[in-house]
Design a protein that fits this description.
The structure is a homodimer.
Chain A lengths: L11 H6 L15 E2 L5 H8 L5 H10 E4 L3 E5 L5 E4 L1 H10 L7 H4 L1 E2 L7 E2 L5 E9 L1 H8 L4 H19 L5 E8 L4 E10 L1 E7 L2 H4 L3 H4 L11 E7 L2 E2 L18 E6 L10 H29 L4 H29 L1 H20 L1 H7 L2 H23 L10 H15 L16 H9 L6 H19 L4 H7 L4 H10 L6 H17 L3 H8 L1 H34 L12 E6 L3 E3 L2 E3 L2 E3 H7 L10 H6 L8 E6 L11 E3 L5 E8 L17 E5 H10 L4 H11 L2
Antiparallel strand pairs in A: 1-14, 2-3, 2-7, 3-4, 4-11, 5-10, 6-10, 7-9, 8-9, 10-11, 11-12, 13-14, 13-19, 15-16, 17-18, 18-21, 19-20, 20-21
Helix pairs in contact in A: 6-7, 7-22, 10-11, 14-22, 15-20, 15-21, 17-19
Chain lengths: ~700, ~700
C-alpha cells in the first residue's frame, strides 16, 4: 500500500525539510494540482472537460484529510467517510483486545450507537486558501541563517494563530513551488471520528507483503468511518454520490487527495545523496527491524497482534523505499533528472541578470547537503522527529512531548518550537491524550533493539551513547525505562501536561527523566541543523524555484506537500516485459489466487459465500493518475463527480513517482466502487452502510 | 573480526568467479606476495632485510591454511597449531551440548588424551608450487564461451588429479594475475585436527560486535589446535619459535597467511555494480537476517546457543561489507580507482598493437557484467554456491551434495562439476560426513525465513517459486522438509553417498527429494552463467592482466586467492580525526573498558585473577601489514622468523583493502604473543600448552 504520508520522522526528515519542488511543464496526465491552480485549459483541450467552479468546489468539499497521513471522502450527508482499511488499522488495533481482534475479524456497527471512537483520529476538510506570500517574504527579507529561520517561523506561527480562531479550525502555511508561493490553508476540523465498518485484514490486504505494490491485485482495502461533533454525526451536504455508471477502460478519471511528499525538483546533488546514502541507510535499518519484528511475532498470539501493525508499516515502507531506490539507480531515469537540471542551469547562466540572482543556488544547496550529511546520524539518533530512531516506543514520544510542551508552552507563540505553536497545540493534545494500549514486553524488545542500534550507529564511545546507557546493557536499560514509567496511563499524561514544568521536575517516571536528561542534546543538534542546513536549503530552493518561474513561466504544479490536490488521469493498463497488464481484476481472481495460507488466505466470510457470488464483479483497477503516499484513501472520481473507486496503492513503477512521473508505467491502484458495495451487500450484509450509500447514489 | 574467506557463496560468487586482479606497482608496505614472487630487492633496499631462502622456507613451512577459511601456524614440533578463537568457533559449537557450552566456557585439554577431534576440520601445509601456465593456455587457445569453460575446467581437473596422488595431498590450480599466470599449489593435508585450548568467548571476543573492526581493542582471540595422523600428533620440525624479543613500534613485521579475496583490479564497470547493487543487496539481506537471528536467540538458552555462532558470522560479515561499501562510496577513493583504469587504457590505446590485442577487454567485461546483473537473482536464489540463498540449513547442503555427487561421480573426472573432481572429493566427503548437531526448531525458522525471502525476491509468480512452494506457506514447507528429513544422521548420509543414484532415487527423505526436484533448474542457471558470463570475464580479465604486464612490467603482486602469501609491514598506529591512535593496548585496558554487561563483560576467570595480574602486559597491537579476510589466524612474525603475534582483525579502514590499500589508515590488528602466553599462565594455568611453547622459545 502507499505509505501514509510521513509528517516528520527519521530519515525522511531531510526530505521533508529539504526542498519542495516545482516541476517542468507537465505533460499528459502528470501532476498533482492545487485546487486554486488547476489546469483548466488543458482539461478542456485534451479531454473536453469543463472543470466548472461548481464541480471543483463540490469534489473539493467532499474530500478530506485524515490525521494518520491519509486521504478520504464523505460519502453520505451524515458524515460517513470512506478511506482505506490500512489507514484505519491504527484505530482497529487500538480498539482490539486479546479477545476481540478487530484487525483479524473486521468490524461492523450494527446500530448507530455501536460506532466506536477511533483514538487520536481527526478529519480535516479544506476551507479557504489565502495567498500570504507577501507577508512571509516581507518578514524574511534580507535575512539568512538563524535570523531567517526565526523570522520565518515566527511569521508562520502568527499567520496560523490569527487564522485558527477556534478548535474547529486548523491552519497551515504551505510552501508551494519551493517557497515561490506561500498559501494559508484553513481546514474545518472534526476531532471525533468513529469506526463504522471494516472488513477482515485477510480480505483488505489479500496477498499481503508479496502482492503489495503489485498488480493484478485483489484487495477490498476499504473502511468506513464517520465524523461526529457534539456526540452527533456531522451534516455533510457536500459528499460524493456513489457512481451510477462505473469507470471503464480509457475513461477520464480524477483523484482528489493529499499526496505526501515528492522530490521531483531536488537538485542532482541532493538526489545523489539520497540514492547513495540516505535511502541505503534507511533500507538497511528497516530490513533489520523487519527481521526482528517478524521473529518477535513468533512469540505467540499476543506478540503477533502487537507486532503486526508495526510490521505492516515497516514492510510497506521498506518496499516503497526499495522501489524509490531502484528508480534512482536506473541510469536512464536518473539521466533525465540530470539533463533537466543542466538545461535549467544553462538557461540561467546564459542570462547575466538571472545568473547573478539565481546562479549560485545549486552550489549553496550542494554545500548545505554535505553539511546535512555530516549531521544526519546525530539528527536521526539524538533528535529525530517526534522521537529519535532508537526510541520506537510511544512512551518516549509522550515523554518528549510532555517535557518539551512544559518548556515551550510558557513562551510566546512565535518563539516556540513550531510543533507547539498555538495553531498546532489542539492536535498535540489530541495525540497525547489518545488511548493506546501497549504491551510492555514488546516495548522493552523494541527499545532494546533501538538502543543497540544507537550504540552501533553513533559508536560505543560517543558521549551521547555513554550518557544514555551508562554501564547498563541496552536490554537492562530498556526494561528499567519501560517498567519504571506510568506514561501508558492517559490520566498520568494529562496530569503531567496540566502540571507543567513543576510536575515534570517532581516526577520520578524513568522515561520522563530520560527525556528531560537528553533534551538539551536534542535541541542543540536540531537548532544547528535548522540554522546551518534548513535555512540555507529553504532560501536557495526558493531561488531555484524563482529561476524556474523566470525560465519556464508558472504553468506547472508544485511538489506534493500533503495538502489537497487534484490529479487527472485515464483508466488503463500498461505493458510489462512486453505483455499487456489489463486494467481490471475480478472477485473471481481473488479465489483463483487464494492458497488457503496467509497472506493468500481469504477470510471465512468470503469462503462461506463463494458459491453465491458473481465472480466476474470487478474488484481492483488501475489508472495513470499521478499519485504518491498520502493519497491512500483518495476517492477515484468520474466526470460526473461521483465516487467510482478508492485509491489504495500504486504499482511498483509508481514508486519512482517520488522523483519523476513515467506515464508509460506508473499506475495508481484502486478498489472499484462496485466491489465495495457488492461485498458489503453479498458478503458482509452491512445493509446499514449500503442503504446510506444507495440513498446518495440516487440524489 | 576479519571474515574467514568465503569460498563460494551467495553474492560473493561474482567476486570470486569474477576477476582476480593485478595491482599497479606496489608502494611502501602494500602487497600480498606469493612465496615464489617475493619482493626481495625491495626488502633489502627499504628494510635492509635479507629474505634468505632458509628464512622464507622456514616461515612458509611453519604456516598453514585451515579448511574453515582461516590461516594458522605450527608452534611446536608436535603439530601444535595456533589460530584464532573465531576460526575454531565452528569446532567449539559442534562439540558443545546444552550442558557443556564450550563457546561460553572455553576448553583446555588437561592431558593429551583429552584433545578432541574438530569435526570437518583439516589443515593444509603448502608444499610445491609448479608453473602450469603453458599447459592451461595451450588447452584453451582459440576457444570462447562454453568451449573455453569446458576446456579450462577439464585441463585443471587433469592437472590437479595428476598431482593429488594420495589422500594426504591436495592440489589446486591457482589463477594469479588474472590468468596471466597459472600455478599448481600442492598441499600436505592433515584431516585429523583436534582442539587443545580455547579461552571463553567473552575474553576472546571482548567488546563483541560493537568493538569488532575497531581499535583500541582488548581480545585474546586465540585457540590452539593440533594436527594428528594415524591417531598421533604429527611431527612438525618446521614451526615458529615463540618470540624471544617482542615487536615494538616501528619494527618490521611480517604476516604469513591466506588472504581470501581482493578486488583491486576490478574494472570500473564491475566496481560500480558492486557499489550500487551487489553490496547494497547483500547488506539489506544480512541486516534482515541479523534482526531475525538476534530475536530468535531470545527464545531461550538453547536457541541462543544455536543462533549465536551464525549471528557472529552474520554481524561480522555485515560490518565488513558496510566498511567495503563505505570505502567505495568515498569519492576520493573511487576516483583513484577510476583514474588508474583510465591511465592504463590510455596507455593501451596509444599503442596500436596493444590496442588491437587488449583494447576491447573493458567493454567486453562491462557487457558480461550487465549480463551477470540480469542473472544474479536467479544465480543467488536458485543455484547459489553450496546452496541457494533461501536454504540456510545444512540439511539442504547435504541433500544437494548427495544428489549431485551421485550424478557426478560416475562421470569422467574432467567432465564433472569442478567441486566433484577427484582432487576435491576427499574434502567433499570429509565435510559431508562430519558430525554437526542441529536444532530442528532453528532449522525450521531459518528455512521459513529463507523461503519467504525467496518468494519476495523472485516473486510469487516465478515458476521456480511455484515449484518449490506449491500451495504451502513457507512455514509449512519448512517444517515438512526439516521434519521429513533424516540427513542429520551421519550414517544416513554415508549410506546415501555410498548407495549412489539408486539410493537417492529410492529415498523418501523430503529434503533429498526437494534437492533432486530442483537440481535441473540450478544446473541450468549455473551453466548459463558459466558459459555466458564467467568464461567472458575469465578471458577478458586475462587480457587486462596482460595489458598491465605489457604497460607496467611484472614487478607487482596478484590479487588475493586464499593461497599462502607474505605481507611486509611495520608496527605503528595511525591518525584518526587528528588524533594519534597508539599501536598497543594492555590487559589493564580490558578491565577499564569492562562494564560487566555483554559484550563488555570479562569472564569470571579474568575477574578472579584481576588483582594478581600485571595490567601493563601488552594485549593487542596494530601494524600496517596489508591483510584481508582469510588472514585470520595468521602468525605475525619478526625479523628473526619468530611468532610475535596473531592476526585476528583489521581496523575499520582496512575493509576498503578489498579494493585498494591506504597505508595512512589501513591497519592489521593482532594479539601480542606476550598476552597469549601470559594469560595461558596467569589466568588459565594451561601449563601443558605453555611448556610446549617455552621449549620452542629456547630453540
Amino acid at each position: 500500500m502507499m505509505r501514509t504520508s510521513k509528517l516528520w520522522s527519521g530519515a525522511a526528515l531531510l526530505a521533508v525539510m529539504g526542498a519542495l519542488g516545482l516541476s517542468s511543464p507537465a505533460e499528459a496526465d502528470e501532476g498533482m494540482w492545487p485546487f486554486n491552480h488547476l489546469p483548466k485549459a488543458m482539461l478542456m483541450k485534451k479531454y473536453g472537460f469543463d472543470a466548472s467552479d461548481a464541480w471543483v468546489g463540490h469534489v473539493r468539499r467532499s474530500s478530506i484529510r485524515l490525521s494518520v497521513g491519509c486521504s478520504g471522502s464523505f460519502v453520505s450527508g451524515t458524515g460517513l467517510t470512506l478511506t482505506n482499511h490500512h489507514c484505519a488499522q491504527d484505530c482497529l488495533s487500538r480498539l482490539s483486545s486479546p479477545q476481540h481482534d478487530l484487525v483479524q475479524r473486521g468490524f461492523y456497527a450494527q446500530a448507530a450507537s455501536d460506532e466506536k471512537v477511533c483514538p487520536g483520529y481527526s478529519i480535516q476538510q479544506l476551507g479557504e486558501i489565502t495567498d500570504v506570500t507577501a507577508r512571509v517574504q516581507q518578514a524574511t527579507r534580507g535575512l539568512a541563517g538563524e535570523a531567517f529561520h526565526q523570522a520565518f517561523r515566527a511569521e508562520s506561527a502568527r499567520i496560523e494563530k490569527e487564522c485558527a480562531t477556534s478548535d474547529q479550525l486548523s491552519c497551515e502555511v504551505v510552501s508551494l513551488y519551493h517557497g515561490g508561493l506561500y498559501e494559508l490553508y484553513q481546514y474545518r476540523r472534526y476531532q471525533d471520528v468513529r469506526l463504522v465498518f471494516a472488513p477482515e485484514i485477510d480480505a483488505a490486504s489479500f496477498g499481503g507483503d508479496p502482492d503489495n505494490f503489485n498488480f493484478p491485485r485483489y484487495d477490498v482495502d476499504f473502511t468506513f468511518l464517520r465524523a461526529y461533533e457534539g456526540g452527533k454525526p456531522v451534516s455533510t451536504p457536500d459528499h460524493l454520490a456513489w457512481a451510477s455508471t462505473p469507470l471503464m477502460p480509457n475513461d477520464l478519471s480524477f483523484v482528489v487527495g493529499n499526496p505526501g511528499t515528492t522530490q521531483r525538483l531536488r537538485t542532482v546533488a541532493e538526489l545523489e545523496y539520497l540514492r547513495d546514502h540516505e535511502l541505503v541507510e534507511e533500507l538497511i535499518r528497516l530490513a533489520q527491524y523487519r527481521g526482528f519484528l517478524n521473529e518477535y511475532a513468533e512469540r505467540g498470539a499476543e506478540a503477533r497482534r502487537f507486532a503486526s501493525e508495526e510490521l505492516f508499516q515497516v514492510e510497506n515502507g521498506y518496499k516503497e523505499l526499495r522501489g524509490e531506490h531502484e528508480s534512482l539507480l536506473e541510469p536512464a531515469f536518473f539521466q533525465r533528472l540530470v539533463a533537466r537540471e543542466q538545461q535549467l542551469r544553462a538557461r540561467v547562466n546564459a542570462d547575466p541578470t538571472w545568473k547573478a540572482k539565481y546562479g549560485g543556488a545549486w552550489a549553496a544547496i550542494a554545500e548545505a547537503q554535505a553539511k546535512a550529511a555530516s549531521m544526519s546520524d546525530e539528527m536521526d539518533w539524538i533528535e529525530g522527529g517526534f522521537r529519535p530512531l532508537w526510541a520506537k516506543t510511544a512512551l518516549f514520544s509522550w515523554a518528549r512531548t510532555l517535557v518539551r510542551g512544559a518548556a515551550e508552552r510558557p513562551k510566546k507563540n512565535e518563539e516556540r518550537l513550531e510543533e507547539f505553536s498555538d495553531a498546532r497545540l489542539p492536535r498535540v493534545e489530541q495525540r497525547l491524550f489518545a488511548q493506546r494500549p501497549l504491551n510492555p514486553s514488546f516495548e522493552i524488545s523494541k527499545l532494546t533493539f533501538g538502543l543497540t542500534a544507537l550504540r552501533e550507529r553513533l559508536g560505543t564511545d560517543h558521549p551521547f551513547v555513554k550518557k544514555v546507557l551508562g554501564k547498563a546493557s541496552p536490554a537492562e536499560l530498556a526494561a528499567a525505562l519501560i517498567k519504571g514509567s506510568s506514561l501508558e496511563k492517559v490520566e498520568e499524561r494529562k496530569r503531567l501536561w496540566n502540571g507543567g514544568q513543576a510536575a515534570i521536575a517532581a516526577s520520578k517516571d524513568r522515561m520522563l527523566q530520560l527525556a528531560l536528561a537528553i533534551d538539551a542534546e536534542g535541541r542543540a543538534v536540531r537548532s544547528r541543523f535548522e540554522n546551518e542546513v534548513e535555512s540555507v536549503l529553504t532560501k536557495n530552493s526558493e531561488l531555484v524555484a524563482r529561476a524556474r518561474f523566470a525560465v519556464y513561466g508558472m504553468n506547472s504544479y508544485p511538489d506534493a506537500t500533503f495538502s489537497p490536490r487534484l490529479s487527472v488521469g485515464t483508466v488503463r493498463g500498461w505493458r510489462e516485459n512486453g505483455k499487456w497488464v489489463p486494467a481490471f481484476t475480478t472477485i473471481g481472481g481473488a479465489f483463483d489466487r487464494a492458497t488457503g495460507r496467509a497472506p493468500f488466505a481469504l477470510p471465512k466470510s468470503w469462503l462461506d459465500h463463494q458459491s453465491q457470488l458473481a465472480l466476474d464483479t470487478p474488484l481492483n483497477l488501475v489508472t495513470d493518475n499521478d499519485i504518491v503516499g498520502g493519497n491512500s484513501g483518495s476517492p477515484l472520481i468520474n466526470r460526473q463527480g461521483e465516487l467510482a473507486g478508492l485509491i489504495f496503492d500504486g504499482n511498483i513503477h509508481s514508486l519512482g513517482g517520488t522523483y519523476g512521473f513515467d506515464i508509460a508505467r506508473n499506475r495508481a491502484v484502486a478498489v472499484d466502487a462496485r466491489a465495495i458495495k457488492y461485498t458489503l451487500d453479498a458478503i458482509y450484509g452491512a445493509r446499514r452502510v449500503t442503504a446510506e450509500l444507495s440513498a446518495n447514489g440516487k440524489q
